[in-house]
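Sample log: Prefoldin.
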Amino acid sequence: MSLPDDTLRKILVQIQQTAVQSQRALNLSVQQTTAKDRERRILQLTIDEISGIEGDVNLYKGVGKMFMMVPRKEMEKELKDQEKELADDIASLTKKSKYLEKQFNDAQAQLRDIVGIDGSTPDRHL
């Protein structure tokens, strides 16, 4: 039982669109993960620097075009909260990336199966 050329062409186009969309979303997810990981490393370095300061000192935090004095404990807590949030975002993006990569690989495998790259099926001109 063979499918008509129009039906086969529609199926191929749909699978190709899925593959392209998955690849684009995967690239975006990887870029977002890289950016968030960079932010997280900067936060970790900042936390390390603040932890190295001795005594109960006040620090300054940029707020718009001004700086606000913030107690060290409060600043450390804010930075650690931000770091945890970024770590959660990175974990979520990593899961999303794995899903998108699997979706892309599945679409590629379907295309190979339909087109018959392995040579087991005769070539069709689309």
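Observation: Confidence is low (pLDDT under 50) at residues 119-126.
Observation: The domain at 5-115 is CATH 1.10.287.370 (Helix Hairpins).
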